Each structure stands twice: as C-alpha cells, then as structure tokens.
Amino acid sequence: MPKTNFDFDQLPHRRDTGSIKWDRYPNYSPYWVADMDFASPECVVTAIQKRVDHGVFGYAQPHAGLVESVLGYLERTHDVKVTASDLVHLPGMVPAISLACRAVCSPGDQILICSPVYYPFFNVAADAGAELIDVPHIRDEKTWRFDWVALEQAVTHQTKMMVLCNPQNPLGRVFSQEEIVRLAELCDRHELLLVSDEIHCDLILDPEQHHFSALRLPAELRERLITLMAPSKTYNIAGLGYSFAVIENEQLRQQFNTARGCTLPEINLLAMSAAEAAYRDGEPWRCDLVDYLRRNRDTLAKFFRDKMPDLKIHEHAATYLYWIDCSALNVANPCKFFSEEAGVFLTNGGPFGSRKHVRFNFGCPRAHMLEGLEKMKVAIDQIHSAS
C-alpha cells in the first residue's frame, strides 16, 4: 500500500470553529469527544469541494457512486458480498440503534447490553419504551470478556434484542470470531435480534488481530442481524453524519424502514460525497493513520506504566480511545479532578458504566498527546506530595 504525505504531527487550529471538542470547554485541553485532531484525507476534502462547486444543494439520495463504493468496501475489506437492496443509508449511528430498538420492541420489552460501553447504549431502550438489561463485561488480568453465564441468566421472555459494540468502545477490545459466533448463537437460541455496532472496525491497531464482522456469520445466524457501519470515525467526518445498515433479511429490513417514520432527517449530501471518496480512495491514508495511532497508543501505555503507575490500563487493540482505571487515586470524580487540577478534559466514565474510569482520546498529534499526559502526571504528583 503506497504511503501518503499526510503530516499527522500537525495540529490543526480548531478553537473558535464551533468544535464541540475544543469550544464547549475552552479553558481546558481537550482529550474527550471521539473525533480526531487530524484533517480528513485529501480525497475526502477534494470530493466535498467538488460537490460544493456544483452550487446546488437540494434534496439528495444515495447515488450510484456511493452505493458502489460501500459495496466495494464491504467485499474488499470484510470479504462480504451483499446487494444494494441490503443497504439502508442513514444519517448517523446512534439514530440507527434507536431505530432498531423501535423496530422490534414494544413497551415492557427488554434490550441487552454489556457495560462499560458507549453511553447512548444506555438510552436507546427508552426510545422504544423498553427496559435496559446490563450484563457487565468481566475483567481478568489482561482484558475484558463477556460473562456468558450471566448473559444466559439475564434473558427472559421479554428480551427482544442485544446491542453489541465491536470493536468495543471504550474498552478497545476486538472480539474474536469465536466470541461473535457464540454471541450470535445465544441470540439465535433465544430468538433475539442482534444489532452489531461496528463503527470502529477500520481502526484495529494490533496487526495480529482482525475484525470479525457479524456480516461473516453463517447464514442461519444472520436472519436476526442488523450490522451498522460508518466511515465517520476512521476518516474524521463524524460531523457530516452518514452511516449505513446492512440487513439481509427482507422482512426485518422492511420493519426497520417502517419504524423510521418521520423521525430521521435527510442525509447530508456532502456526507454522501465524503463517504464515497473515503471508501473508494482513502485506504492509503487509513493505513498511515493506523500506524500513527499504534505508535501513539504504545507511547501512551509506556507513559502510564513508567510515570503514572497509579492509573491502571489493560491491553488495547482498537480505536483511539483508551479506557483508564483511576481507582487508586481515591478521588470521587476522576474526570473532574483532571480538569480542575491538570486543565485536561477527559471523558467521564460514569455514563459509560464506571465512575472510577476516564477515557483518553489519543487521536491527535503525539506532541499534543504528551502535553496532556504531562499535565496529568503533575496533578497526580501533587496528590503524592500532599500525603
């Protein structure tokens, strides 16, 4: 794969641009919201500029180039062949999960999740009037795993679906083929819909690990499956709003589309041009990005182990979001502590399912990442010097 000339060490100016990450809490250095401090690849920027030059911004639909690009991506990257009719184009990932809940659940039904997990997972059940059942992941000395016994025990006659995050945000886990098959078999056995959120699937940092998409499950296990993907995290175009669902079961796809009613907006036409370009021409940039993020991750992990051993970390194989255990600091709110004492704004672990954790976004130039880590170290050193 040819290398690009992109400079990942260049920090773009983002303050006062309407950025949630940089402008919502302007007094702090931001390492929280899940977008990266890199400009998008040139192919994406060029595609958007070309569409803007057209000068007409009326209602748009997914065009042939986008569909071909998505189908080509699925076959090339995931070894999956689906048809254009299997795709449902959507304006965002969270609305898609909410839509899936509303498509299959009625008030009083139950939805399974495994925490800690991306915080909207805790809220989508309410959109369908359903009850949320959380079966937390269990942690060993190395990583986090499914609690298979607890999952089996949690299912009742009211349980209708399970929402999976793979790769896992915030844990950085890449679930194995064996784990995904076992989870799908559990869902099949209990007649549950499996919704697989795979938005981070192109950000696998460990070369020896590979994403196993739920789309590669045996055919009999895909009858109750909705797989969700997007280019947004990978190519840093989350603000444009484009994702897609793959639903091979025609009846389920119709049920899903019917449930949307008038609740979802039209897809941004610039987002569709960006997605087409990203999936068609963005692979060299993505490979360079993953290499850079891997080195960031390794640098971050070494910094924690050598200079901040109070903060506990585990193996991290995917995403640019590191989950950090702050229990040993003995502070009530680690996120608040680092913002007030270090001037560093992190993601609060509470809404994800663990108040003693924070999430650190290392999708940024390495010097900027190290600047934040040094500030955190100073704050921790002050705790030790005061004791």
Please, could you describe this protein's structure?
By secondary structure, this protein is of the alpha/beta class. The protein folds into 2 domains: 20-40 and 283-386, Alpha-Beta Complex (Aspartate Aminotransferase, domain 1); 43-281, Aspartate Aminotransferase, domain 2. It is built from 12 helices and 14 strands. The strands form 4 sheets. The chain has a 7-stranded mixed β-sheet, with helices on both faces. The longest helix is centred in the C-terminal third of the chain and has 25 residues, at 283-307.
Shape: globular
Secondary structure class reads alpha/beta
The strand line-up of the biggest sheet is 2-10-9-8-7-3-4
Helical region count? 12
Give the number of DSSP strands: 14
